[in-house]
Amino acid sequence: MERFFKLQEHHTDVKTEITAGITTFLSMAYILAVNPAMLADAGMNSGGVFTATAISAAVGTLIMAFFTNYPVALASGMGLNAYFTYSVCIPLAEQGIEDPWKIALAAVFVEGLIFILLTLCRFREKLINDVPKNLKYGITVGIGLFITLIGLSNAGIVIASSSTLVDLGSVPSAPFALAFLGFLVICILHHYKVICPILWGILVTWGVGMLAQKIGWYTVNPNVGQYSVFPDFNSSGFIPEKPALFAFDFGFITKNFIQFAVIVFSFLFVELFDTVGGLIGIADKADLLDEDGKLPQASRALMADAVGTVAGACLGTSTVTAYMESCAGVGQGGRTGLTAVTTAVFFMLALFFSPVFIAIPGFATAPALIFVGWLMMNSIKKMSFEGDPADSIGGFIAMIMMPFTYSIANGIMFGILSWVILKLCSGKMKDIPAVMWVSSLLFILRIITMIF
């Protein structure tokens, strides 16, 4: 173990690494509750998604551990699962397409294959460098706002309104009150640097929700989406449900190639920044960056992410990516792949507790979505609103279009188009990199298909 993970070289030991791995798992275990609930809105079976989420997280994390020896864990990404459900599946369902999640899984699979190719030819790093910083930060902030809106909606804190578009929900209702309480709990725990504040926030909210159901404040009514918050240990008990293996629908591509290409590109674009940003942040905290501020074995880390995405699609879940929650394990002293191996083992163990995770209600996971949204909003501090209007306005458009059009893809599309158009109008055509030209062309074709 010492020879493989080089523990002494990284100034760590087995006990520290295992403790760090458990900490990382507890910090990101909320995805086992959030992802099945979110993809269920896309029409998928929550039990199957739970199984796929746990296995793909374990597989991706193990690849990262053995391929790079980094203390980085992977799982289905927040923001990417939102795009999967609310920007791809639901709009396709509204077009009358059955099982749109099969199309989305096909897009994730293709995205993963493209990532593998881009990583092999080292184009992925170049792609990151060529996209303007403000756009990167604007996309991150926009996703944060979008996730926050989903969380507020899931808890009934924000509701639809025919007169004002959105309105305040029923304050005395249990979901509203408990979700707000849960968010405050997470914030307080985060302030006092308690380990795993998101997970504790979910558990506290869920526990109070059980009490609310017992006393009749929270009522079970499937017609309005309110289900029992108590786990149902039926005959299947702790046996994991079968995931949607290789459930791809490639038939959609033949008649809707441009639309499918935009879906794939949006997955590609969002995950590109999510993964690279996460890796750099974790590496910085773990002192893994070299003297020039670069990440050694970056291509290997990106390859682990790409293979994890392909595996996740084959298993039946949304894009797998590096998790910033790995910083929790790093904070506990994790420095090598042994930390990641430990996290992966716990994801596999979690497979046999699906009734527990699936019973966690939407109002208990909503605080996690809102808090993650707040964390992503921090990137706005890195944005510049002065100087070149293309940079400032492009990032701004990307940021606001996501929540206000309820689509991550729309934010990326209009952000890039705005940036390119403003560059052209200001006589700076030479400053537009090739990747932005290609992106703009693809999005123009998408708009043409929307008009005609």
Descriptive terms for the model:
452 residues, 4 strands, two-stranded antiparallel sheet, mainly alpha, single chain, 3% strand, two-stranded antiparallel ribbon, 20 helices
Reconstruct the topology from this structure:
Blueprint: H1 2-5, H2 14-28, H3 31-40, H4 46-68, E1 74-76, H5 80-94, H6 100-120, H7 123-130, H8 133-154, E2 158-161, E3 165-168, H9 174-191, H10 197-215, H11 251-255, H12 257-285, H13 298-315, E4 320-322, H14 326-331, H15 337-350, H16 354-358, H17 362-377, H18 389-405, H19 408-425, H20 434-451
Antiparallel strand pairs: 1-4, 2-3
Please describe what this structure looks like:
The chain has one domain (10-229, 260-451). The chain contains 20 helices and 4 strands. It has helices spanning 2-5, 14-28, 31-40, 46-68, 80-94, 100-120, 123-130, 133-154, 174-191, 197-215, 251-255, 257-285, 298-315, 326-331, 337-350, 354-358, 362-377, 389-405, 408-425, 434-451; strands at residues 74-76, 158-161, 165-168, 320-322. A two-stranded antiparallel sheet has the order 1-4. A two-stranded antiparallel sheet has the order 2-3. It starts with a helix and ends with a helix. The longest helix is centred in the middle third of the chain and has 29 residues, at 257-285. Helix 19 (408-425) packs across helix 20. The protein is mostly helical and 452 residues long. It is globular and about 65 Å long. This is NCS2 family permease.
Summarize, please.
With 452 residues, the chain is mainly α.
Flag low-confidence runs.
Answer: none
Q: How many domains, in number, for the residues?
A: 1
SS-derived structural category = mainly alpha
Topology as a string of helices (H) and strands (E): HHHHEHHHHEEHHHHHEHHHHHHH
